[in-house]
Design goal:
homodimer, alpha/beta, Arc Repressor Mutant, subunit A, Nucleotidyltransferase, domain 5, about 40% helix, globular
Chain lengths: ~425, ~425
């Protein structure tokens, strides 16, 4: 019997597979990657028969794969289940600021195809650029592969209004009609999230905060912000303005002027452009000719002024993190952005300042580490966003498990290599 | 037919009243106080028949009362439902520090009987004192009334270990076996919560944060801490150490020594004993003879030193709140503790500092207000804690709705005056 028919007949024979069971199992495997049947039953709380029905159904439609786990007690291999990474694709966007990144990812956030475009300073950001970029990462897909694209995930800086228009004061973007352009150009549902949140979710899914329920992610690059994971969910605040640590003041009386119009903001002291600015001001160098990495190289070479600028930035960030640790009581604090290029220089200063200012009890278990997800962090976070939303939307779950897609090559229960442009 | 029998027969005739429906309705009315049948159906998402069954059952066992709402559109009165405040009692404890407060409350947190005991500075805190205090607020109850006591709610400062032993460095309490003593002395289940959390829940239930999902509560008295409400739930952190704002530093280089052993903590600058200490240090007065209200009176009388001390404390608190507002994006910030006695003097300073330091965008909608729940705030919060836990525990829900209790006078669907000691 052809697979699609077999699937339809199975669904008819066992009409009791509730969407809720499929969702619970997939949500669990999204987090835990691979789990035995017993592990799935125990963790989801489903009864064994329901779990078996649902597992068989997910195997049949190619969304899960069987793998083998070695049992810790007996040392023997036992049956385990894992998500078939290639059972679906997401389009991931990272609107970083001076460059736009586009990715086609599989279900587990591996980037299968990538496109990047430099915006250049002051160049206007038009929604068409985003449409064009998505076109580039999807244009080589054949219809079957295109059929497997489930959703678009977007990581954005700045503010999105209720109509889906994007503004970012730092970047000179004003009410770019992002959502409308995407909805008009593509058939896929679009999910958008602040970059702070995509970063912390990427770390929670694939990075240093894996298995953590309370974590902080400090991004320090053009701007400074904080993603907050609390009890396994990100913390948004009443209007989605949480984590604005870049505009808190930790050096009273500092005269550094921030883009927001205030003085002494953390961002005006420790963001990468402001590290360059301070170095240029103190040395009289032309700041237009200096890059962050130049100042960093000089600091590594022992340049006292460069070192002093990093010292000041590191102290300010350490003060900020000390306060955040006392307020949130996280398991882990992860640093990301340009700042981590200077890890060797600033991390000891940051740690030193945190230890100086924080009550020892608050520091007993907390780790401060540097992100290892690299430049792709927000693309992976955008894929995580799309995946989390697919699991919540019945019609997308149905598309993920659709019998019609069973005819496609990737759904024969083994991941296959793809003929796609990789960079 | 006697009521108990009628109840039992109703439960037999309609065996489909799920605990979940009762819980959903009670949880809703715990928050919203009074709601029409349509409002209950719409908000809980129950179908009309299930909601009707459950409402009738709750009316029959006296947990709900009918009230009359005036319809906003037609101006006519329509049937509404409200919790019968007297259908159950809680024992509420507030282990404030230098005094212990005990209350017997009804379901809605009204305090029916109160007992207070001064611990006095340096006097040891023994668990027996708590047992004695609870005895005092419950000793005049007759057996029927005693049968209506559902649980004990405790608001505690400091740290509770896994064995339920309480330690508070500030107060000199070390591993007081609180939980064990309560469990041994009384038949009721005991629920315990940090005072930060009981305060924010009291405000969320009965105070300024009613209907808010994101709120902050700053207590400034002997110590300083912050209760955080995020998305309708309190934020605990990984180990329950969140909200330690009292040990953050907002005046770099400040030499004020804190109880925690560090220097320059907010608590060492703005807590009431430290306001007294600073005034005494600057004037050479004997701090043992001064109380917080004395310094306050002098400030009101124009004493420049007292005003300067309050100015410093207010600035430090304003800086702390500015940072917290930027990080949490709350709808409201509520101030509580001794500090609010000095509302007229410090509130303008705090607001001024918040406005000076915070990005205007973060302040667009946030209110900063003073708690109006008075000295009872933690007793009411402890009652809220007990109520929230009763709704989660099937056996306690059963006790709340038990037909046997129907024979008791208070369950004839009208609240009645009680013959209880009031203070």
């Amino acid at each position: 019997m052809p697979t699609a028919e077999r699937m339809a007949s199975r669904r008819k024979r066992s009409p009791k597979i509730a969407n809720q069971w499929l969702r619970q199992i997939l949500r669990l495997l999204y987090r835990r990657r691979s789990l035995s049947r017993i592990g799935i039953v125990e963790t989801t709380g489903l009864n064994a028969a329901s779990a078996s029905h649902a597992l068989r159904y997910l195997l049949d439609c190619g969304v899960l794969l069987r793998s083998a786990d070695r049992c810790r007690l007996t040392g023997r291999h036992r049956e385990a289940f894992t998500v078939n990474a290639e059972a679906g694709h997401f389009v991931a966007l990272d609107l970083e600021g001076d460059r736009l990144r586009f990715g086609l990812t599989n279900l587990l956030g591996d980037i299968r195809c990538r496109w990047e475009e430099c915006l250049g300073l002051g160049q206007p950001f038009a929604a068409e650029k985003v449409v064009e970029g998505i076109g580039r990462v999807t244009r080589d897909l054949d219809p079957t592969q295109l059929g497997r694209v489930l959703a678009v995930g977007v990581s954005y800086p700045g503010l999105l209004d209720a109509e889906g228009r994007l503004s970012a004061v730092n970047l000179g973007w004003t009410k770019v009609p992002l959502l409308a352009a995407l909805k008009q150009a593509f058939p896929w549902p679009v999910f958008l999230e602040r970059d702070k949140e995509t970063c912390i979710h990427a770390e929670n899914w694939l990075g240093a905060a894996h298995d953590c329920r309370n974590a902080l992610f400090l991004i320090a690059e053009g701007g400074i912000g904080m993603g907050i994971l609390e009890g396994g969910e990100h913390l948004l605040g009443a209007r989605g303005f949480s984590g604005e640590i870049g505009h808190c003041k930790f050096i009273p009386g500092a005269e550094d002027l921030c883009n927001c119009g205030q003085k002494g903001c953390l961002e005006a002291i420790a963001s990468s452009p402001n590290i360059v600015r301070q170095y240029a001001e103190r040395t009289g160098a032309a700041s237009a000719e200096l890059r962050f990495v130049d100042v960093l190289e000089r600091a590594r070479g022992g340049d006292a002024i460069a070192l002093a600028v990093f010292e000041r930035a590191g102290r300010a960030i350490g003060s900020a993190l000390s306060t955040a640790i006392s307020l949130f009581d996280p398991e882990i604090v992860i640093l990301g952005g340009d700042l981590i290029l200077a890890e060797d220089i600033v991390l000891p200063i940051i740690w030193d300042q945190i230890r100086l200012l924080t009550r020892p009890r608050s520091l007993e278990v907390v780790q401060v580490v540097v992100s290892r997800l690299g430049l792709d962090i927000r693309l992976k976070g955008a894929a995580s966003l799309a995946f989390r939303n697919v699991l919540e939307a019945p019609e997308l779950m149905q598309r993920l498990c659709a019998p019609a897609r069973d005819a496609a090559p990737a759904l024969d229960r083994r991941p296959r290599p793809r003929a796609m442009k990789e960079r």
